[in-house]
Amino acid sequence: MIPKPTDAELEILHVLWKYGSATVRAVNEEQNKRAGGDEIGYTTTLKFMQIMADKGLLTRDESQRSHVYSAAVREGDVQSAFVSKLLSSVFHGSAMNLVLQALGTSKPSTSELQQIRALLDEEINNNQR
Amino acid sequence: MIPKPTDAELEILHVLWKYGSATVRAVNEEQNKRAGGDEIGYTTTLKFMQIMADKGLLTRDESQRSHVYSAAVREGDVQSAFVSKLLSSVFHGSAMNLVLQALGTSKPSTSELQQIRALLDEEINNNQR
DNA sequence: AACTTTCTACGAACTGTTTCGTAATATTGT
DNA sequence: ACAATATTACGAAACAGTTCGTAGAAAGTT
After folding, report:
1. Which residues of A touch B129 (CB under 8 A)?
2. Does A83 touch chain B (CB under 8 A)?
3. Residue A36 has pLDDT above 80, yes or no
4. Where are the domains of chain A?
């Protein structure tokens, strides 16, 4: 089972999922480019990436002086872990309620709704067989 | 904006949503009836309910010696807050991806899928107009 | 009235998360 | 070679969440 990342860890994972691999410096600069509020200190980013490597969320290549990190977990797996947690802790395990809430909360466009519908049809067909 | 409840607070809210209102004693007993692992101490439940009343998550009637608490937030609003947070922190704001992940993670039955599809069709029709 | 039980309030310990300062070491520029 | 800069590692402070022990007041029992 993969460890569920914290908020700060998720930010770092997003950068690494986007770029594939990166140094602490590059990740920290990307974070601060996005950041609205306070700047995130370099050593803060460093510390998290070290912790995450310990936890198994990241791998790193130490052959260069500036270590190069990569995500060790897939984005889909992390999303799945969060969805499972949310389902059990907030939705009594009902995926249907979650889906309805997601649709209600975020008003997707008609074309997105149709895409979801298409996926749903496929799913139903698979079940039938 | 309603404060996002923590895990322990959520457990208490579930009990109060179910029963409408309850004393600390009743909530604590319900929690321990469900609990798999360690018992939750009475004062632990009490402390949380006091904190939650301060935060505005609960209201309480102090006219009796045993104070009677009720949820001050609707379950749907709390679900919506969690979905919003999850969307922005894990799904880049894409409700569609969240829906797909929810369907993939939890394998709903065919009849549930059909219910969701019906809702979706309604939504699409509303948009068209 | 004295004893026991139940309740609230408060404080404090413990854990996990976030943040950064400082020290030690390596690299680069003059 | 020396100074300036960049990088890692470590430790610790600050904050939030969770858990409970103890004290004191109120109610119930004998």
Report:
1. none
2. yes
3. no
4. 7-71, 93-129
Q: Supply the pLDDT for residue B35.
A: 66
Q: Is residue B50 less than 8 Å (CB to CB) from chain A?
A: no
Burial of B54 (0-12, 13-18, 19+ CB in 10 A): exposed
Q: Inform me whether the C-beta atom of residue B120 falls under 8 Å from chain A C-beta atoms.
A: yes
Record: contact B86-A82, CB cut-off 8 A: yes
**Which of A106-110, A117-121, B99-103 is predicted with the least confidence, judged by mean pLDDT?**
A106-110
Q: What percent of chain A has pLDDT over 90?
A: 74
Neighbours of A63 (CB within 10 A): 7
Architecture of the B7-71 domain: Orthogonal Bundle (1.10)
Q: Six-digit token pair at A31?
A: 């974070």
User: Which residue among B7, B97, B124 places its CB closest to the CB of A113?
Assistant: B124
Q: Give the model's pLDDT for residue B65.
A: 93
> What H or E segment, with its residue span, contains residue B42?
helix B42-55
